[in-house]
Design goal:
The chain has helices spanning about 10-20, 25-35, 45-50, 75-85, 100-110, 120-125, 135-150, 170-175, 185-190, 210-215, 220-235, and strands at about 55-60, 90-95, 115-120, 180-185, 195-200. By secondary structure, the protein is α/β, with parallel strands linked by helices. It has 11 helices and 5 strands.
């Protein structure tokens, strides 16, 4: 009987489905990723998300890979992700729409791990300004504001309502400490309530060096970002 051949991405999905998680962390992450892959939003599995220790939000385009085709892996990304995984739980949060496509890219580039959570835009957009009347977002914002008040943070609901691309996602995590967000876009790292902005240099090998230097002015390397996150979580 002829054996059916699968694409590398499909084969990886099959292996992951039959593989038993090694740790409690992997078990929770697997449950979260299965839900997000299947079309649930972060709201449906928010209790599991909030269980995960020391969350670290990482951007996808122009941090792990470049944004302009042909796509290339940032050569610093593998060690960067490995170091972050030793510190806490990595959440790759991206404006891309397809969970399967992003996960396949990460797998094919050799940087996917079973303890990484992947959140694409459809999984968190309910919390954004474009969906301000969504009762799910209203509930999570209300719960987060109660946490912020206990910490003495001066945060109002309007402060949390920004376009989805800004990744104002602190209400999804609802933690009494700042959550690092590593991104090349200032919209995500500057004055993002409940988040510790870690602005990193843009990875884009397909544009002129002068343009890249201008885009990345005042931003740090991925290695420096790891140290920033490590120092932050020494107290948590």
């Amino acid at each position: 009987e002829e054996k059916e051949d699968f694409s590398p991405a499909v084969q990886a999905d099959i292996e992951e489905m039959i593989r038993e998680p090694k740790t409690e962390l992997e078990k929770v992450v697997k449950r979260i990723n299965r839900a997000l892959k299947g079309g649930d939003t972060a709201y449906e599995i928010v209790d599991d998300i909030q269980k995960l220790p020391r969350p670290i939000v990482v951007d996808f385009n122009n941090v792990i890979i470049n944004g302009c085709a042909p796509h290339q892996l940032n050569p610093d990304a593998p060690n960067f992700l490995e170091q972050l995984r030793q510190i806490g739980t990595v959440f790759i949060i991206t404006g891309a729409s397809s969970w399967d496509d992003v996960r396949s890219i990460l797998h094919n580039l050799g940087v996917w791990s079973n303890d990484i959570v992947l959140m694409t835009q459809p999984t968190f957009e309910f919390i954004s300004r474009e969906h301000r009347d969504d009762p799910r977002g209203q509930k999570l914002r209300s719960e987060y504001l109660a946490t912020a008040r206990k910490q003495g943070w001066d945060t109002q609901e309007e402060d949390l309502l920004r376009p989805v691309g800004y990744k104002y996602v602190a209400p999804i995590f609802n933690q009494p400490f700042l959550i690092p967000i590593i991104d090349d876009a200032w919209q995500a790292t500057d004055n993002n309530p409940g988040m510790l902005g870690v602005p990193v240099q843009c990875w884009e090998p397909n544009v002129p060096r002068e343009t890249l230097q201008l885009i990345s002015e005042g931003r740090i390397t991925l290695a420096e970002a790891v140290e920033s996150v490590r120092n932050h979580y020494k107290n948590h």
